[in-house]
Amino acid sequence: MYIKSAVVLAASVALVSGCGEQSQTASNSENTNSASTTPVAWILETQPENAVSIADAKASAEEGQEIVIRGRIGGRKVPITDGSPVFTVVDMNLPHCGEIPGDKCATPWDYCCETAEDITANAATIRLASADPKLGGLSELDEVVIKGTVGPRPNADVLTINATGVYVVGE
In this model, does residue 169 exceed pLDDT 50? Predict the structure, then answer.
């Protein structure tokens, strides 16, 4: 339980790290997921139905429950890497910095224009439950629908989903 809480905390810290801090910069460009052409088992070709917002899921989801949520990938430039099949999604109702007129943030995926409280209330940690967590098909700010099982919820602020599938909207 402590390890999973640490994963959630680490993902939240990554989101709240602040504008201008470009984590995973050009030195990691070879890991950019959207350029992958290798099929990935956990990328869904059909959008799951009955997706709920992250805020709604946080209000009612129970550990072990099957769930489908809709959100936008946030947190870091390269959402997942070979060593870390974990990423963060943010509720679609929370605008990223690039959606705010006049905002010139160079790192809109980190939601630095929002308060830490708003980010915490609207973010979820996604852990790929696939036995083959290869990279592929995910980029910062992608809109996604995620199907999986709710992980441990030590408190109402924590929502971790053990994802069995991810659908990228608009692909």
Answer: yes
